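Example S7 (structure tokens).
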């Protein structure tokens, strides 16, 4: 099996070198970029297995990098982890709403960082093994291409919206509380506020209509049978 490739995008050279050293010890191949523009170029050229991304960088910030990747058909499936000194809840929610898979605040030990990277990669691999096309009601939810089809209409949902829809549709008729949805879609080792689920459900309804996902008051959500 070829080595998994991690792209690390950060303007702190010492941190880049430290992360590179420790990831290589764990058997990963490492690519480095010192700003957002370089990060986008490297992602397009090399298609890494995961991107570790700072937020505050010259030329292009991490939020914009994440937004561009999630809008690019060739890059939108790549897992993204924010590693940043920004610790305010607003920035975390914005990053996760853009489709990031994890949000890690500096400083963090390299041991914990590598553990979080492996957890995201493992969850991504598990998701890839699921049934690739779900047909529910008048929707075809295609996990291979990350698109939703309804007749001749095609919907391109951001990654976390797609994965939330896919998970609910795969459990249609069953109620899932917010914490379960957070654990299944974002991972049980990631702290994400409940509001993140509500925001993603609202965005899905805006695009597909409000007749697929039902709110069960005081409990959570379910995909209607």
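Recovered sequence:
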């Amino acid at each position: 099996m070829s080595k998994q490739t991690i792209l690390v995008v950060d303007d702190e050279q010492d941190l880049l070198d430290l992360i590179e050293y420790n990831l290589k010890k764990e058997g990963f191949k490492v690519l480095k970029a010192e700003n957002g523009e370089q990060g986008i170029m490297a992602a397009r050229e090399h298609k890494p297995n995961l991107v570790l991304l700072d937020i505050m960088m010259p030329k292009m910030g991490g939020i914009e990098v994440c937004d561009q990747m999630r809008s690019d058909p060739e890059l939108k499936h790549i897992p993204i982890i924010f590693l940043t000194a920004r610790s305010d809840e607003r920035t975390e929610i914005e990053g996760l709403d853009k489709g990031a898979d994890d949000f890690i605040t500096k400083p963090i030990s390299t041991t914990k960082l590598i553990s979080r990277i492996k957890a995201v990669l493992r969850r991504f691999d598990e998701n890839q093994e699921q049934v690739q096309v779900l047909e529910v009601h008048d929707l075809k939810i295609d996990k291979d291409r990350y698109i939703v089809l309804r007749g001749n209409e095609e919907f391109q949902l951001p990654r976390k919206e797609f994965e939330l829809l896919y998970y609910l549709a795969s459990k249609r008729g069953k109620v899932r509380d917010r914490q379960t949805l957070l654990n299944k879609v974002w991972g049980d080792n990631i702290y994400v506020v409940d509001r993140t689920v509500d925001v993603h459900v609202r965005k899905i309804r805006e695009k597909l209509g409000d007749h697929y996902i039902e709110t069960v008051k005081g409990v959570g959500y379910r995909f209607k049978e």
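Notes on this example. The longest strand covers residues 5-9.
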